[in-house]
Each structure stands twice: as structure tokens, then as C-alpha cells.
Specification:
By secondary structure, the protein is an all-alpha fold. The protein has a domain at about 95-180. The chain is about 65% helix and about 0% strand.
């Protein structure tokens, strides 16, 4: 009878252990290999147009309506010439837009990585909670798990906010007439 009980306990313990191990995320090395393979599969564009390319073709127009010249009113005789007022906002060139969207995407990537790490910690704490019989240990582990769950909720909200921020940047750039290539 004792052998049957021990055999049954061993089978249940092995089943619980294998269930906990099956919930762990894949190793970081496997994820890195998949990402490297994905990057190799992405085809790069054959030509990227920059501001230097536009400067080379200055004076030639292939499409669109002709641009009307800007007329600056002349100063009256005896008055000093009016200087153009400086723009209140900084010049928003390609570097500005690329830096702005890259910063937002980097913050989003870090938040997603942190959320994945928190989820892994929560999974480990859940497995530890079910493993311990000592009420004091379970209370400590339960509190750590609750803290990690609260932090995960905060990080998920941050991810939603950053995703909205990136969409807002893209919309602002579209309204400002920024070429889509500047935001890649």
C-alpha cells in the first residue's frame, strides 16, 4: 500500500513540475536567433532619398504645380529694412523626426521587455506559491506576486500610452507633410 501511495505522489509531483516547466518562456538565445533570421529576411530598399538628393535636383520639377515666388515687401525710403522674425519653434528636419520617433519606439521596446520579464517572474512566483506548504512562506510569496501583478498592470498601461504616443507622432508628422521615410 505504501508503495502505491509513493508511486502516486511521485507521478503527481512529476506532472506538476512538468506543467510548471512548460509555462516558462523560450530561452533568450532562441528568441535572438529568430529575430536574426527575421532581420535577414527583410529586404532593404534599393534607393533611399535624402536631402542631398533633393539638393542635386534643385531647379528641376517633374510633377506638381509650379511654386509661386515669395514676395517680401520693401521698406519705405528712410526706414530700416524689416528683419524676418525668427520662428518660435525649432526647425523640424529629418533628424528631428527620426530622433523623436526612435526615442518613443525605444521606450516602447524597453517597456515591452520589462513586461515580459515581469510575466516570467509572476509565473515563477505562482509555481513557488503552489510548491510551499508553509503558510509564512506562502504569505511572503503571495505578497511578492501581488506586487509583481500590480507592476505589470502599470507597465501595460505605459505600453498603451507609448503606442498612442507613437501614433500621435505619426499623425502629427503626416499633418506637417513629413515624408513617411523619415519616421522609419
Amino acid at each position: 500500500m505504501k508503495r502505491t501511495v509513493w508511486l502516486l505522489v511521485t507521478v503527481v509531483a512529476l506532472g506538476a513540475t512538468s506543467a510548471a516547466w512548460s509555462q516558462t518562456p523560450p530561452p533568450l538565445a532562441d528568441v535572438a536567433k529568430k529575430e536574426a533570421a527575421r532581420r535577414k529576411a527583410v529586404k532593404t530598399p534599393s534607393k533611399v532619398y535624402t536631402n542631398e538628393d533633393v539638393a542635386k535636383t534643385k531647379g528641376t520639377m517633374t510633377a506638381g504645380a509650379p511654386v509661386a515666388p515669395v514676395v517680401v515687401p520693401a521698406a519705405a525710403p528712410g526706414e530700416p529694412a524689416a528683419e524676418p522674425e525668427p520662428s518660435p519653434e525649432p526647425r523640424r528636419n529629418e533628424a528631428y523626426w527620426r530622433a523623436r520617433v526612435a526615442d518613443a519606439r525605444e521606450r516602447l521596446r524597453r517597456s515591452q521587455l520589462f513586461a515580459d520579464s515581469l510575466q516570467t517572474r509572476i509565473n515563477a512566483l505562482t509555481a513557488d506559491f503552489t510548491r510551499w506548504d508553509d503558510p509564512n512562506q506562502r504569505a511572503v510569496i503571495g505578497q511578492q506576486r501581488a506586487d509583481a501583478l500590480a507592476e505589470l498592470d502599470r507597465v501595460r498601461q505605459e505600453i498603451d500610452d507609448l503606442t498612442k504616443e507613437i501614433a500621435d507622432i505619426e499623425e502629427e508628422a503626416r499633418r506637417a507633410g513629413v515624408p513617411p521615410g523619415w519616421l522609419r
